[in-house]
Amino acid sequence: MEPLLVLFLALVIDLLLGEPPQVVHPVVWMGKVISFWKRLAPVQGARSQLLYGSGMVLLTISIFALPAYFLLFYMSEISSIAYIIVGASLLKSTFSFKELRRAALEIKVLLTKDNLKEARARMPALVSRETQSLGKPALVSATVESVVENTCDSFVAPLFYFLCFGVPGAVAYRVVNTLDATIGYHGKYEYLGKVAARLDDVLNFIPARISGMLLVIAAYLSKKDGGNAWQVMLRDHDRTESPNAGWPMSAAAGALRVRLEKEGYYSLGNTNNPPTPQLIEAGIKLTEISVLLWVALCLIVEVTYFVFVA
User: Fold this and answer.
1) Is 25 left (phi over 0), alpha (psi -120 to 50) or beta?
2) Which residues contact 93 (CB under 8 A, 6 or more apart)?
3) Disulfide: which of 4, 212, 277, 310 matches 302 by Cβ 3.0-4.6 Å?
4) Which pLDDT score, from 0 to 100, does residue 310 have?
5) Four-point Cα dihedral 235, 239, 245, 249, nearest 10
6) Per residue in 71-116, pLDDT tens?
7) What is the C-alpha separation between 181 and 306, in angstroms, rounded?
8) Which secondary structure element, helix H or strand E, spans residue 268, and what is its range?
């Protein structure tokens, strides 16, 4: 019964309170640990960087996932209530939807007012790409892309690994995803972040496809173009460099009948509708329904396990 209550309480915390203070937020501390490792990383040699990056992954997962496991084991010996509260707090730190929604709506309001300068300044909270040269349509597209892609990274995937491996599994996933977001890209950290990037691809393989399917179902339920969402997802999911990001983004592009594009990298969907600021709110509503569907499915899985297995 405890895992079900941990999940339920973690969802309530996200809905009512949002993110914990940065000083105690585990993901913030993950970032600090990763920054420390980066300062000690070898600056030359592909092999040495690859080995060092592998060690970074293993050590950082151990630093955060193992204490979570032993802390919860200790709490379970003391009190079920203590276990549920601590477990829910730790689980909540691995996922976020309220903050993602808030950041996207802020961009939508700024773009509606044609305040492109401030919108560009706020975009780093959502995307890692260069945004200072982007016009309004590109800013709208980037915001929608971020919302739907992060629905997988920031919500579906952490809860998927909670269902599979409990709170420590969700924590381990968040470590890998944070490593990938920090060093898992081409250029300076090409070899240092290669293991983190590949492991993140593996871990997101199933959640990304679940996210795409949830968005297709959400399109039908919200009276968007579910058929087009399915067709575009099957057609365009492999156009992104990431083997996973294209699934939810192409499904959303099809559902909203719009083209989502990162110039020079990928183009998903068709030019049925112009990318206006109102598209951001439509994308948020689509992801809200997919999030609710995933929550319902996760709760059903936990109840089923409690009734028939536990």
Assistant:
1) beta
2) 20, 25, 26, 27, 171, 174
3) 4
4) 63
5) -50
6) 999 999 999 999 999 999 999 999 998 889 999 999 999 999 999 9
7) 35
8) strand 266-268
Q: Does residue 187 carry a pLDDT above 80?
A: no
CA distances from 16 to 12, 84, 104 (A): 6, 17, 18
**What tens digit of pLDDT does each residue of 224-282 get?**
999 999 999 999 999 999 999 999 999 999 999 999 998 888 999 998 888 899 999 99
DSSP labels for 233-255? Answer: HHHHTTSSSSTTTHHHHHHHHHH
- Distances from the Cα of 46 to the Cα of 190, 197, 264, angstroms: 8, 15, 27
Token digits for 97?
């939807």
Query: Do residues 298 and 235 make contact, with C-beta atoms less than 8 angstroms apart?
Result: no
In the block, which residue shows the tokens 């009512």?
A: 16
Place of tokens 């871990």: 203
Q: CA–CA separation, 32 vs 234, rounded Å?
A: 39
Question: Which residues touch 134 (CB under 8 Å, ≥6 apart)?
Answer: 120, 123, 142
pLDDT digits 0-9 by tens, 21-67? 888 899 999 999 999 999 998 888 889 999 999 999 999 999 999 99
Burial 223-253 (b: 16+ CB within 10 A, else e): ebbbebbbbbbeebbeebebebbbbbbbbbb
Residues 53/57/63/67 CA torsion (nearest 10 deg)? -170
**Taking the chain, what is the end-to-end CA distance rounded to the nearest angstrom?**
8
Beta carbons of 30 and 64 less than 8 angstroms apart: yes
